[in-house]
What we know:
By secondary structure, the chain is α+β, with helices and mostly antiparallel strands. Helices cover about 30% and strands about 20% of the residues.
Amino acid sequence: MPCPSPQRKGGDGRLTTAIDPHDQGPQDACGVFGVWAPGEDVAKLTYFGLYALQHRGQESAGIAVSNGRQILVYKDMGLVSQVFDESTLESLKGHLAVGHARYSTTGASTWHNAQPTFHPTATGSIALAHNGNLINTADLAQMVIDDEADGHLDLQMRMPPTSTNDTSVVTQLLAHHPGQTVEERARDLLPQIRGAFSFIWMDEHTLYAARDPQGIRPLVLGRLERGWVVASETAALDIVGASFIREVEPGELIAVDEEGLRTQRFAEAAPKHCLFEFVYLARPDTVITDQRVHSVRVEIGRRLAKAFPADADLVIPVPESGTPSAIGYAEASGIPYGMGLVKNSYVGRTFIQPSQTIRQLGIRLKLNPLRDVIEGKRLVVVDDSIVRGNTQRSLVRMLREAGAAEVHVRISSPPVKWPCFYGIDFATRAELIANGLTNDEICRSIDADSLGYIDLDDLIEATSVPKPDLCRACFDGIYPIELPEADRLGKHLLETPVHATALPVLNNP
Ligand code: SF4
């Protein structure tokens, strides 16, 4: 485990590294929230639900509300707290609502691609929010063209030409087919959609939720005294005072209206829950597949301590996602736990470009070392993952400059070697440091004294979820939903020239 490296020690005195504040770790692909609750302030409930889900997407936020006659959508770029204020929320009156906090996967980060997506239907309209990423977007876009050719698509019902995300394509397909109700149309359409989707959508009267047959992204159902809530994570139920009922099952379609809650299956469940949700994506106070995420992370830390012990004086986390595993590492190793890094909690995605001077401070925008805690200590530093390696390299350098005698890095996920096509934006395969380098080489590259990654099977055991029920493709390269050809995948699929020609309805008004 110690890096076989002669080089060392002490910082090199430079704060300027290759760090970019935008060189972030894995980015999640959205938080979704829906509520049906006559008599309640559904816009505010949705606002607070999205607030609890902000970690899942920070590029844009939106809320759609229906008063039974029409749907009103308000969305904009930025954090939930930047997009909405009291007067905006006051104007969103109704008894059901759908909300979304976005990080872009398919489709650029633009206002037109912000969600919920809105579309007129033959009898009204729908608004849809999506967590996940589809892998047959090109086929679905072709279905829109075929619908038009078959006369199912009124020209006035085309998607705005500037919307280029997979969610807009699904919204169009749900909205067409005037001969069917939205529910009937969903039952036909959902089995044709491939990839990761936790959808929440609404028409003027009914709230709908559906989860892909693999249940890759989480989706939970909660109960209010006078209504129902569906959300990405249980933490969002807690914040609005809803009690957790159960997960929306993989392959399940739920509808809620004045007649109550109806449920039906559109596909057999074949669970492949995202393993990375346990490591990093979900909030620690969330429950996934009956497992408390915080407890799972503490257990990962215990296992890391047994597999990769260190002769050290202090265990510190990289806050906040490394914190539970650092607690577990300290507990199992007997090495004291302490806070060696202070996180600026208010660093979200900023639209203010930092000047070059500020950019060069890099990671200090997010983390600052506590010199008096660190000085002269042999540290174990626990982080959740290494993607490109730039952040950890900067972190080690920063700790050495703050006086650390040794820095032993422990990672609570296995090496990330493969990209995710189901809703997490890591990096391209070529950018993933573990794709090209051995663990020893990574250790040297980040200039740590030693490096230990949790073993994949150890991680899976810590979750208590059976291995066949988990997607772990970013670690082992086994993709549970077969991927199409590479040219039919990608964030900018609907923005590329080839599709501009092949899929005219998406690009020509
Ligand atoms: S590839 Fe990784 S991040 Fe993506 S769904 Fe599978 S486990 Fe999760």
